[in-house]
Write a structure and sequence with these properties.
There is one protein chain. The chain is α/β, with parallel strands linked by helices. It is 39% helix and 20% strand. It folds into four domains: 88 residues, no CATH class; 100 residues, 3-Layer(aba) Sandwich (Glutaredoxin); 239 residues, Rossmann fold; 32 residues.
Length: 507
């Protein structure tokens, strides 16, 4: 190869390296890059012209042909790997072999994601150096990957607060421990917990175009919506509903004498003073118009509402339902929270509740189902069969044992009316500040409101708990396992080691 040819190929290599370095430093393709790339091609052509005879001889050599064949084979293999990886990224399938399907999105989440008709921006705000941020980012990336597998319209962006203070200010981010915003068509929702339940709930909120009105009756000693400090207040419930983009309003029936037309759900939460007949009539007219009613009663106090509940197929029993517990002294009465662990498997409100889970109530009263034409009653929550009921809390003698309905869903129509829905609970404290977030209480309340407001998509998803696999061995199976594997296997390995050692020593 001539000296001028070597110089040309050297200059061609320098021009190529310069092109790459300039592109990397500037971060964009600038006009000068075209000049450097042009010089690369120019010097390479000069080399081919000056040393064409040498190159022809070089290419004709046997070793060159074999090398080129190997090079072509390597290039083809690389091309095949690139194609396979590209197809693997664009078209892939995942399988979830976990017993509880903990790695699979619920049907609700999948349906909601596939219904997106515009890009959903997901912004994860964080600060470098904050403890736990890397783990949070990794967990969130794994969660979002499940959603992105269902739709390409989900765009995830990690935003460092100090690097993008303008964006942090726009979204009102004042900390960097892992705050997430969903932005869909200008509607935003903030979440701070990394799980499917919170993300899907936030997704429902940003995709919902209408706001539902939830009216709470007042004037009969109902639980206070603004009471945040006392355990039996309902401020936590109010905040939870407002976070789900419901509008919470109060309804003084004693003054208005009519339920507003824009009421999507009317909630009666633990009244202790009787409703007047004209108020009962107003509520009856409301459900005849196709309204939705949520009644949560105080223990042994119906506040006159039995006049309405009997018409729709439910009669409060005015008792105290308690659980029976086994003690060293025999059976005893648990005067703590009463648990409801039997759920309707077909009702949309409770069908997602798993076995072994429960709801907690504070001295609830049982509910009896009545036969009313055109009305269907579904017992959403029941106690276990050995629960007992007493007329007073003095608990004397043997109580009436049985499985008591604590929450019912009523659907149908009254004569001359439209289809309505109602949820009736024999307790109000299960949705108080103290008990709302215990066990499945929150899910029961949210699901009931969502069903009454005709927003099935907002029905919350019960967490999927990993299930342990137990290995149970009988004495016979354990003996076989012990003498067929545990003992012989180490002896076999020891024998092989000794044999190899002896063979090596005698070699």
């Amino acid at each position: 190869m001539s000296k001028l040819g070597k110089l040309s190929i050297l200059l061609s290599g320098i021009s190529l390296v310069s092109t790459i370095i300039i592109r990397y430093i500037i971060g964009d393709w600038v006009p000068f890059c075209w000049v450097a790339l042009g010089l690369t091609v120019f010097f390479l052509v000069i080399t081919l012209i000056l040393d064409r005879k040498f190159l022809n001889e070089f290419i004709g050599m046997k070793t060159t042909k074999e090398g080129m064949s190997m090079g072509v084979l390597i290039v083809l293999m690389l091309a095949l790997l690139i194609v396979v990886n590209y197809l693997g990224v664009k078209h892939y399938t995942t399988w979830d072999f976990s017993t509880a399907q903990t790695n699979t999105l619920s049907e609700q989440s999948v349906k909601l994601v596939k219904s997106l008709d515009s890009d959903l921006k997901v912004l994860f705000f964080y600060k470098k150096g904050v403890e736990g941020n890397e783990d949070n980012r990794r967990q969130f990336r794994e969660l979002i990957k499940k959603y992105q597998d269902q739709s390409q319209k989900i765009q995830l962006d990690f935003v460092e607060v100090n690097e993008r203070p303008d964006l942090a200010k726009e979204y009102g981010v004042d900390k960097g421990s892992g705050v997430v915003f969903l932005d869909y068509k200008g509607r935003r929702n903030r979440i701070e917990k990394i799980d499917e339940q919170e993300f899907t709930s936030a997704l429902v909120k940003v995709t919902r175009t209408t706001i539902k009105n939830i009216y709470f009756t007042i004037g009969h000693g109902e639980k206070n919506l603004d009471e945040a400090k006392e355990g039996l207040g309902l401020n936590a419930l109010k905040v939870m509903l407002e976070n789900n983009r419901y509008t919470v309003k109060t309804l003084p029936l004693l003054q208005t004498t009519k339920v507003p037309d824009d009421a999507d759900v009317v909630v009666i939460a633990g009244p202790i003073q009787n409703f007047q007949d004209f108020e009962i009539n107003a509520l009856e007219e409301y459900i005849k118009r196709g309204g939705s009613l949520f009644i949560a009663l105080e223990s042994q106090n119906t506040a006159g509402l039995e006049k309405l509940t009997k018409k729709i197929g439910v009669e409060p029993e005015n008792n105290y339902v308690l659980n029976v517990v086994e003690t060293v002294m025999g059976k005893g009465i648990n005067q703590g929270p009463t648990t409801g662990t039997l759920f309707s498997p077909t009702n949309q409100i409770t069908k997602g509740f798993g076995t072994g889970e429960g709801t907690l109530f504070r001295y609830p009263q049982g509910l009896t189902t009545l036969t009313v034409e055109g009305i269907t009653v579904d017992q959403l929550v029941r106690t276990i069969p050995n629960a007992v009921a007493y007329p007073t809390m003095s608990i004397k003698g043997d109580g009436k044992e049985g499985s008591y309905a604590l929450v019912d869903e009523v659907s149908g129509k009254l004569p001359g009316g439209k289809d309505f829905k109602a949820v009736i609970a024999g307790d109000v404290d299960f949705m108080s500040n103290q008990m709302l977030y215990q066990n499945l209480n929150r899910d029961l309340v949210l699901n009931s409101i969502a069903a009454l407001a005709k927003e099935e998509n907002l029905i919350s998803i019960s967490p999927k708990e990993p299930q342990s696999t137990q290995l149970l061995l009988t004495e016979t199976k354990f003996a076989v396992f012990l003498f067929a594997f545990i003992i012989p296997f180490p002896i076999l390995l020891l024998g092989i080691a000794i044999g190899l050692g002896i063979k090596r020593r005698n070699a």
